[in-house]
Amino acid sequence: MQKTSICPKYEFAAELLGKKWTGLLILVLLQGPLRFKDIKREIPDMSDRLITERLRELEEKGIVERSVFPEKPVRVQYQLTKKGKDLEPVINAIQHWAEAWVQ
Amino acid sequence: MQKTSICPKYEFAAELLGKKWTGLLILVLLQGPLRFKDIKREIPDMSDRLITERLRELEEKGIVERSVFPEKPVRVQYQLTKKGKDLEPVINAIQHWAEAWVQ
DNA sequence: TTCATGTACTTTCGAAAAGTAAGTAACTTT
DNA sequence: AAAGTTACTTACTTTTCGAAAGTACATGAA
Q: Are A80 and A30 in contact (CB under 8 A)?
């Protein structure tokens, strides 16, 4: 007997997008690689703690890749993997709906 | 100064889908009108409390409509409005991604 | 009449997640 | 030497969630 009778695979995605800030984080990363401070600038209401936490979760799930460049001030870059970039249609669909229905 | 520089309308959708169970609830309601007990059967891990809470939120946002039929044992039915049904492409996109990447 | 069953919730309460604020370490600029 | 930048951590408060039990109303059986 499975947890939900409708669509078990959906569970994973639901758990992913059903967390605060995750969708927005992926949305901004679709722009291209970003540094920690850039994410902060793009999502000012998201706390440092949650930015770190969500990025770690997405990294663990193979959606985001973290790279460290040992430059003058160390540079840490976050970018979407193929798996992450493939979420673009999802984000687009959400944006399309929002355009039609919000406000 | 806006909350996020990327897409303000996305905020609403993010707040909606970025809550636990909301996506799954919409997914099951895409089948057609369902009663409270049917939702429980479809999403057994979701508590009664959260089913009620999420349905009320979606009703308030104009995504779900609640109808009461005064039958023998009272029948309460929940169905998606046009606004709710228009979320189908979003759910489909998520399912498509899940098919490709989960497991 | 009392008991059991069914539907659709509501209430309570402890635990987990999120929000807020301040702190840290390494390095650079002034 | 003091102040600023970047990328986090840590500590603490508030909010949300989860599990379980309880409520209201009706039907039907014993």
A: yes
Q: Which of residues 64-83 of A touch strand C (CB under 7 A)?
A: 72-74
Rounded to an integer, what distance in angstroms lies between the CA atom of residue A68 and that of residue A76?
4
Show the CA angle centred on residue B54, arms to residues A62 and B8, nearest 5°.
Answer: 60
- From CA A85, how far away is CA B63, in angstroms rounded? 28
Nucleotide nearest to B20 (CA to C1'): D17
pLDDT tens sequence across A7-46: 777 888 888 888 889 999 999 999 999 999 999 999 999 9
Strand C nucleotides below 7 A of a protein CB?
6-12, 17-23, 26-29
Set out the domains of chain A in order of their start, with CATH numbers. 8-101 (1.10.10.10)
Task: Return the number of CB contacts < 8 Å for A and B.
Answer: 132
